[in-house]
Amino acid sequence: MAGATGPSLPPEGRGVKTTCAYCGVGCGIVATVTGDRQVAIAGDPEHPANRGRLCSKGTHLGETVGLEGRLLAPMIGRRRASWDKALDLVARRFRETIARHGPNSVAFYVSGQLLTEDYYVANKLMKGFIGSANIDTNSRLCMSSAVAGHSRAFGEDVVPASYDDLDAAELIVLVGSNTAWCHPIVYQRIRSACEAGAKLVVIDPRRTETAEEADLHLAIRPGSDVALMNGLLHWCRDAGAVDAAYLAAHVSVPEDFWGRTGEGSDLWSVARTCDVAPADLRRFFEMFAATPRTVTMFSQGVNQALAGTDQVNAILNVHLATGRIGKPGAAPFSITGQPNAMGGREVGGLASTLAAHRDFAEANRAAVQRFWASPTIAEKPGLKAVDLFRELGNGRIKALWVMATNPAVSMPDAGAVRAALAACPFVVVSDVVAETDTSVHAHVRLPAAAWGEKDGTVTNSDRTISRQRALFPLPGEAKPDWWIVKEVARRMGWGTAFAYDRPAEIWREHCRLSTYAPGDQRLFALPGQAAKGNADYEAMAPFRWGGTPFADGRYPTPDGRARLVPVVQKAVAPPLKDWPLTLNTGRYRDQWHTMTRTGLSPKLARHREEPLVEVHGDDAAREGLVDGGLARVRTPQEESLYRVRVSEAQRPGELFVPIHWTDRTASGGRTGLLPRPLVDPVSGQPGFKASPAAIAAVTCRWRGFLIVAGEGARPECLWATRVAVPAGVLWELAGDGDPAVLEAVLPKGARIEAADASRGTKRVAVLVDGRLVAALFVTETGLLPSRDWLIEQLGAAQAAPTVLAGRAPGVAVDRGPIVCACFDVGLKTIVSAIAAQGLADVAAIGAALGAGTNCGSCRPAIARILSQGATHAA
How far apart are CA 108 and CA 694, in angstroms? Predict the structure, then answer.
């Protein structure tokens, strides 16, 4: 078996500049290895994306680099195998499937967690050598509508903005983005701009933490974005804010454009469609029309819709028509979700593109095939994610390779996805984690490198390319993703074309392809990079490709002009009799995707420990829901259980649930089961934001919790949610059967117990050599103590005598729910400090406690505590 030249590793104690593993902001990190699988994390003050700041997730990356749950050797079925045997099997089964059923009978489903070099090799193998375009990425789920909208308007998928534009903006409009939680470092730049005088408008059905700090919040009806933006466009035209000279020189305007977009665009009609107050709508329109330096940032609330591409183009239309593009502080700005979603777009990781921002036009196919010297080339776009798994279920896809993602959790109608995976004749999963909801269906599992072991490049939301560098040696038999793919390609007979020994070689080839066959209109190109040697690659500093796109008014279209796209508002469906509510899905502040990484961090676990369904008080009262109780959310696809949170931040008639929990971490909260498998007709992106739904209260006989050292087994009961804690795991529990069955998962050791039959309460502690190894507290009608002190007892040399009381001897200090994950500050700590020290603003609380002074994502929550009192938890 051919080896791979591994990256040089830093000596212990020396800082290494690398890039964060999480969102598309692409923050730079200085990582200092401090021991075996231990690393200190700090923001890189020289990185242009974050200038030294990190959010709570990036700050606590050091808690996620251990080997708990890692896949460390190839597996065939449930048995360990050698790399040679596993790779030979994968290559043979793919070859046989292609020979018998054709190249379109196989597929790759890849991920924005891959580095650009990984993505490049996978795309090359599938499109240039297998000869199919059936390679799609989980980025399809988060930003493909932006890709399609950019391509329709500009002729190419180009984000025409940078983070520097926020510094120059006088008005920032956030559409469908809880930026304070999902992109905290971007939000800090927005707040800095606001402190310098810029205004902030947030357009979001929910009153999120971001919306609470806005100058104006428009809580529009889900799916009414096109009406809003068309109304804004025509307001600008009537107000004289449309740049007629720019349109005449640089933009193609269809003859019927103004007529088609003008229907229902008057202020009153738009207010009625969007369900917002006309006065608020007028204020937004006037602010926008009067402020040339405007940046409009949009994210999943725009993209994850059945008309997502039209919604993107409605935003782009406004910026093109008013000439607010290609200028400092004036641009539409798509902010992506994953660390390398952009790198995947650049190499062709989407089924709808070929490579290097090229489509499947005959000239492009010929050029790429010539460059790769490949025996074939994909003839047309392949299956996009939802269609790919539908065809898997229909039996047309016979062999599937899933890389670095968990579609059994993240895809819409995930129950059908699971059934399709289970029925597929051959499934390969290359991943970091040994057991995921997807990998249980794999015939072959291949151990991949994780963050801290990877070596390559990523591209962030504003086109900045940065290096991700290895900190640790590859554990066990893990290998880089690019190496795994090239070894399969070699065994399929294409060794010469995949003779890579290091990621720098792949990078140079990618750069050469970006500039190959000059003369086309593409902006994406990496000139000069292909000539750099290995040492230059190792030392690469962050750089942004493309400069300031469209500053000269030229666009990558045949005539050099942008295009206004006439989009119209589709009717927003009224509530259905059996499904009277609208379900929205999204992220929590301190968690990431399916928690395979963030779920390892005790600090990140404490902000939102359980999956909550957020519901307006009117809906809660009508359905008999109680704050803190349980409820079952149903859609036509499936159902799942959630903890209830009554919140006035929700619009009446709408629900919100998080996307992160899996079968590995909870008995409920399985959000992927619920959305419809319906997609935008242009982009193929699923509509996660507006599924018809119903909700019903679930009554439990008892509730409780289990704290156990190490990992332990999951308790079997109606409600069980895993929470990482120092030295072990906390399980939040509730059920309607006999709670005595929970004792089966307690570890061996000496037991001490207490019971109160009148309250249906039982408490059990398990000790080994005097140390606490487990504590089970259950009650039907009594109170449960705070978990914090018992969690601390797991690490104590000797269990306290009051362990069954659940608190230390004397007066116990309860810090309350965690507000600031960066500095581990609780609600009650903040409230006490406010009262004792007379703290009057967020800055004063930061100075006293540190809360809010790192990533700042908790600043809206702190402001709410100050304004509304301690009863409003963060």
Answer: 35
Strands 15-19 and 28-35: antiparallel
Give tens-digit pLDDT for 791-815: 999 989 999 999 999 988 765 567 7
pLDDT exceeds cutoff 70 at 377: yes
DSSP symbols for 248-261 = HHHEE--TTHHHHH
**Count of positions (residues) in the chain:** 874
The residues with which 843 forms a beta bridge, in sequence order, are: none
- Give percent of the chain with pLDDT exceeding 90: 85
Structure tokens at 287: 């602010």
Distance CA 189, CA 167 (A): 7
Q: Which helix H or strand E contains 508, and what residues bound it?
A: helix 503-514
Q: E strands along 319-425, which residues?
A: 331-334, 399-403
The three-state secondary structure class of 571 is coil
Amino acid identity at 368? V
pTM metric for this prediction: 0.94
CA distances from 152 to 4, 147, 310, 353 (A): 41, 9, 10, 14
Q: Is the pLDDT of residue 826 over 90?
A: no
Contact (Cβ atoms closer than 8 angstroms) between residue 633 and residue 657: yes
Main-chain phi, psi angles of 642, to 5 degrees: -140, 155
Helix (H) or strand (E) holding 95: helix 83-101
Residue 874 and residue 868: Cα distance in Å, rounded?
Answer: 11
What pLDDT, on the 0 to 100 scale, is given for residue 7? 74
Q: Residues 251, 563: contact at Cβ < 8 Å?
A: yes
- How high is the pLDDT of residue 872? 46
Please tell me what DSSP assigns to residue 715. P
Confidence class of residue 12 from pLDDT cuts 50, 70 and 90? confident
- Say how far residue 157 (Cα) sits from the centre of its chain: 20
pLDDT tens-digit readout, 432-479: 999 999 999 999 999 999 999 999 999 999 999 999 999 999 999 999
Q: 3-class SS at 604?
A: helix
Residues 6+ apart with CB under 8 A from 653: 575, 580, 581, 582, 616, 619
pLDDT at 795: 87
Q: Taking a C-beta distance cutoff of 8 angstroms, is the pair 344, 112 a contact?
A: yes
CB atoms within 10 A of CB 80: 13
DSSP string for 22-57: SSTT--EEEEEEEETTEEEEEE-TT-TTTTT---HH
> What is the C-alpha separation between 357 and 347, in angstroms, rounded?
7
pLDDT tens for each residue of 143-194: 999 999 999 999 999 999 999 999 999 999 999 999 999 999 999 999 999 9
* HSE value, Cβ hemisphere, 13 Å, CA-based, for 152: 23
Cα–Cα dist 657/322, whole Å: 37
From residue 158, give the alpha-carbon distance in Å to each of 330, 334, 547. 15, 10, 11
CB atoms within 10 A of CB 837: 13
Position 2 confidence tier, pLDDT thresholds 50, 70, 90: very low
Closest CA to 182 of 296, 299, 294, 295: 299
Euclidean distance between CA atoms 823 and 60, whole angstroms: 10
pLDDT of residue 835: 86
Cα separation of 482 and 507, whole Å? 11
| DSSP secondary structure letters along 633-683 | EE-SS-EEEEEEEE-TTSPTTEEEEES---TTTBSS--GGGSS-S-B-TTT
Residue 223 makes CB contacts below 8 A (sequence gap 6+) with: 305, 306, 307, 570, 572, 689, 690
pLDDT of residue 6: 61
Question: In this structure, are residues 392 and 424 in contact, taking their beta carbons and an 8 Å threshold?
Answer: yes
Whether the per-residue pLDDT at 324 is higher than 80: the answer is yes
Q: Mean pLDDT over all residues of the chain?
A: 94
